[in-house]
Amino acid sequence: MKKHLARLVFVAPLMALTAVAQPAARPVGVPEAYVITPFGYFHPSCVRYVADGEELLADGRIRHVNGTEDAAAPVCQYPRYSAQGALIAADNTSELTPVTNGWVESVSAVAPSSYGKLVATWKTPPAPTVNSGQTLFFFPGFEDITNVQSIVQPVLQWGPSAAGGGSFWALSSWNCCLSGIADFSPLISVSTGDPILGAITPTCTTGLNCATWNVVSEDRNTGARTVLRKTPSKGQTWNWAFGAVAEVYSVIQCANYPNNNGVTFNVRLYDQNLALIASPAWTKNAATGVTPNCGFGLNSTATQETVRYQP
Questions:
Q1: pTM here?
Q2: So what's the pLDDT on residue 6?
């Protein structure tokens, strides 16, 4: 999450659109104890598991299934690192807009006021032919382009992350990074070919100024789902929508990508009154100077957004 990609002048966001691929070994300077997230490298104490049925409150505390609430919200006491190993202060929020640190491709649109809902479906791609310890993330998402504090997203991942995972495809829903904390829902494994549903929906009757949202990641083949329920927007307006994003870590060769030529998201984007937007003004953004260069490219229509690569 960083500054507006279309401007191409932002600095290291939670996802980046410039050089992103990293060698199998983590970047120099990133401590070994740090874990990978869709937003860079975090100290383990700054990544929090939110169980199904628990509610992340607007002040950062958790309301548990039994009704009890945390006495205080955690605040990250450690800096984090971008995908490229750049140091980011623990309380830094200006780095939360896509620019250059992990994102290789994205398709986005900006609303004049607010979006009200996003529903996307896509198929789990084949596994990479070569495992070099890489982590791959594919997702849609919402962000506030002017009041950047966090991004909400249903995420398909391959490889390890702070949520868990390994040499298999898996789903989790994320909200990052209020008070420097990356929150994620339970990780569920999925299989190649499984149809995936990712949805971001308000708990209010409209999207404008809604305080809490549900972020859903679901395997439509098995029915398994993982949800961040009533996750807070904390005063943000979701006026920046991402229809498709590819973010990678530790890619050292093109065979580290899935063994196909891309992931296509079928996206339905709704305005603040929850009316379907027939033709969103999608903008394509691809990283430059990425090594290895794996034939990146983007296709975009009103309802289908594709991130492409050549393994």
A1: 0.76
A2: 31
